[in-house]
Write a structure and sequence with these properties.
Two copies of one chain form a homodimer. In chain A, 44% of the residues lie in helices and 17% in strands. By secondary structure, the first copy, chain A, is of the alpha+beta class. Among the domains of chain A are: 60 residues, Winged helix-like DNA-binding domain superfamily/Winged helix DNA-binding domain (Arc Repressor Mutant, subunit A, Orthogonal Bundle), CATH 1.10.10; 72 residues, SH3 type barrels (Roll). Chain A is elongated and about 60 Å long. In chain A, 29% of the residues are buried. Chains A and B meet through helix 5 and helix 6 of A and helix 5 and helix 6 of B. Chain A binds a DNA duplex through helix 3. Chains A, B: Homodimer.
DNA sequence: AAATAAAATTAGGTGAGACTAATTTTATTT
DNA sequence: AAATAAAATTAGTCTCACCTAATTTTATTT
């Protein structure tokens, strides 16, 4: 059985591995988790014994096939719960991460799959990150933003890149949620501002920064 | 902050207190949790320090006002999650308890209330136990069974008293679920068998024992 | 009331997962 | 290459939540 801490280490290593193809050192893990490097060394030994990672001073930490599988399933659970919290319980973008951090550790053979089905097999979580499928496969991180839409183009909001409360409150004010349709009316070449129409309503102008923070589906 | 173990002890004490107005001894707690009495003594000290219980050799363990409040909220979360697992994720009656046992410990100020709302403020969990409201109040344990219905009476299944797989499989076979309408056609006085009509379909005969295992709403 | 049984408690120990402080190894400067 | 800085590791400690074994207290029999 894999413990809560072990799961958190695995997830952390997985994230570091995805972020950059860099070598994963004990210090990097320690910093990422806010733990002491000494604790990390202990855990590296434990995870190595369980064959979830390999550690080599030259190559750093690497996930084994099993470790990758386990980590992927933790990420799957995390992202599915995030969708649940946002869509079903009406939480805001900035509240869901910490709760999902706890929910992801609930262990039951069929829970993730049932939740997945209940949610309609979502492809992406509310931050634009792809949700691994039951078989471990997943799409690429969502990256098309409103700023990539061609003039006249129509799109639909799928997630946000920026989850600061400033941005989320601004979205609230503009009436933009997940699923909201947006049409790009004009791109101002001077500063790349965007004139948009939200759900067919009157035109509004938003900044380039705004456009780059909104992940969309064309 | 209250730890996972502390929560489990509180819940256990709460259950023992509800079950019977008896004195709650360390041994009773130990047996109920499958722990050693020595461990229970340790925890009694800890919970006493936190002002969640009072302990007196004569009176046994008692919950303080705060302890009662906390325990009630754990029970609330447990029962709400049970409803969620059964109604939304299509789990069976016998699978939900253990998962809810984990979910109940997820700590977030508004989670229970949001879940409650999402589920439509259910009064009872799938075992017929009342779900404490946000203010801590709760109805009495559900106790009306199919055997209490008068001849000709109509009712609706709200929960089961018996959760053995034999009974649940039998229900499955008869097409009975939560919400199913049942009319009592006749009560056979010889052995108290019940002739019923499930959702208006043809008549079927079930035993007294069966009738007493089905909790209903008239 | 004395003997016995049961329950409660204390004392000391274990493993998980964190820590600090000290030391060793590796990398980077000068 | 030697000096210095940074990273990794070891050694020992702490808390939590459990344990066993021994002892004390309380209750029940005879």
């Amino acid at each position: 059985m894999i413990t809560l801490s072990e799961e958190n280490y695995l997830k952390c290593i997985y994230r570091l591995w995805q972020d950059k193809g860099q070598k994963i050192t004990p210090t990097a893990i320690a910093e990422s988790l806010g733990n002491n490097p000494a604790s990390v060394v202990d855990m590296i030994r434990k995870l190595t014994d369980k064959q979830l990672i390999n550690y080599d001073k030259k190559k750093g930490v690497e996930l084994t096939a099993q470790g990758q599988k386990d980590a992927t399933m933790i990420v799957r659970r995390h992202r599915l719960w995030e969708v649940f919290l946002l869509e079903k319980l009406d939480y805001h973008w900035d509240e869901i991460h910490d709760i999902a951090e706890e929910l992801e550790h609930i262990k039951d053979a069929t829970l993730a799959d049932r939740l997945d089905k209940f949610l309609g097999f979502p492809e992406y979580d509310p931050h634009g990150d792809p949700i691994p499928k039951a078989n471990g496969k997943m799409a690429k991180r969502y990256s098309t933003t409103l700023a990539d839409v061609k003039t006249g183009g129509q799109c639909r909001v799928v997630a946000v890149k920026d989850t600061t409360s400033q941005f989320l409150q601004y979205l609230q004010k503009l009436g933009i949620n997940i699923g909201t349709k947006i049409q790009l009316i004009e791109k101002i070449s001077f500063d790349n501002s965007l004139v948009i129409s939200i759900d067919g309503a009157e035109h509004k102008t938003v900044s380039q920064k705004f456009g780059e923070s909104l992940l969309i589906d064309m």
